[in-house]
Write a structure and sequence with these properties.
The protein is α/β, with parallel strands linked by helices. The chain contains seven helices and seven strands.
């Protein structure tokens, strides 16, 4: 039933994707959104998958491929890690990714990134990595990272497609459009490098206050809304010469 609805959705709001070639003659940046144990590793926490999930494992695999390419080229990478204090809940979700827990750390496949000189780690305590980059003095770690590295094209991967990835993309697009992120020109969401969680309706109905969250449906909606905000959606990302 859900798969039939998803097909109807895709027919009603079709999402055109593109094969995007990253230009070699300018700086490309990569942002990882919450590819951490608490959201991706089976049994790692309240919001972690309870069993292996193909969309999530595929996201990790594709993200790791991009990460290695960016590291080989010594290009800038920023990794957002969801990290919360126990006395600051994030409704409507149960406690997750608490400070000091392994939930808030990168998945094992990406843990090696912590020692790479081109990688900036930013622990955030909210959905939106852009807002989570704000400092008390009004500066923004992400905005400074874009400007200091002269990033023109930004590639975004991670979880969840329709929540933290989308929130970050929306804020970044708004900031770019207002001229706060110069010289940034393009924000690109790599669809195969994104994933969201699956929480079927029949399960949600038996839990007070729970919201149904069909995975493929919400993944499509998240990508569609990111494109609606002006981001480019790509099903393939490569480096090369951009044809005029």
């Amino acid at each position: 039933m859900v798969s039939e609805i998803v097909e109807v959705l895709k027919n009603e709001i079709p999402l055109e994707q593109e094969a995007f070639v990253l230009p070699q003659d300018s700086v490309n940046g990569l942002v990882l959104v919450d590819i951490i144990n608490g959201f991706c590793t089976v049994g790692a926490g309240n919001l972690a998958p309870t069993e292996p999930n193909m969309q999530i494992s595929g996201m990790i695999k594709e993200s790791e491929k991009l990460v290695r390419l960016f590291c080989e080229k010594k290009l800038p990478i920023m990794a957002f890690l969801d990290t919360h204090h126990p006395n600051k809940p994030e409704d409507p979700y149960p406690p997750h990714c608490l400070v000091g827990s392994d939930e808030s750390n990168l998945v094992p496949e990406l843990r090696w990134l912590e020692g790479e000189p081109n990688v900036t780690i930013r622990r955030k305590d909210c959905f939106d990595g852009y807002l989570g980059s704000m400092e008390e003095d009004g500066s923004n770690v992400f905005a400074d990272w874009v400007k200091n590295n002269s990033i023109k094209t930004l590639v975004v991967v991670g979880v969840c497609t329709d929540i933290c990835v989308l929130d970050f993309v929306c804020s970044t697009m708004s900031a770019k459009n207002r001229g706060f992120l110069k010289p940034l020109e393009n924000v690109l969401v790599y669809s195969n490098g994104c994933a969201t969680f699956d929480f079927p309706l029949d399960v949600a109905r038996n839990m007070k206050g729970a919201l149904a969250h069909p995975q493929e449906f919400m993944h499509h909606v998240g990508l569609y809304m990111a494109k609606e905000r002006g981001a480019k959606i790509a099903n393939k990302v490569s480096f090369g010469e951009v044809k005029p």
